[in-house]
Amino acid sequence: MVKNSFISIILQEQEENKENSGSVEFQVVSFTNKIRRLTSHLELHKKDYLSQRGLRKILGKRQRLLAYLSKKNRARYKELIGQLNIRERKTR
Known about the structure:
- The structure is a single chain.
- This protein is mainly α and 92 residues long.
- The chain has a domain at 24-82: Orthogonal Bundle (Helix Hairpins), CATH 1.10.287.10.
- It is 77% helix and 0% strand.
- The protein has four helices and no strands.
- It has helices at residues 2-16, 24-44, 49-72, 74-84.
- The protein is globular, with a radius of gyration of 14 Å.
- It is found in: Plastid, Chloroplast.
- One of its GO terms (biological process) is translation.
- Belongs to the universal ribosomal protein uS15 family.
- One of its GO terms (molecular function) is structural constituent of ribosome.
């Protein structure tokens, strides 16, 4: 899958900078990786409700991190959204 290989490249770049492992971008990338793994798991196991709950929690964490990044640095937010191929959050 193209998306997973691209994420692994981003993760390798982030792992080279160990001091940045707490950065918002690194956390969003790792959450995105977990989300994609859980999504593929749930396609096989439709009634795994605990995994569904975990997925919703991770989605909420990623959403909050993206909202924070959007407020602090719009350019970095746009770049990250483009790299990860995820939709921009809805604004009210």
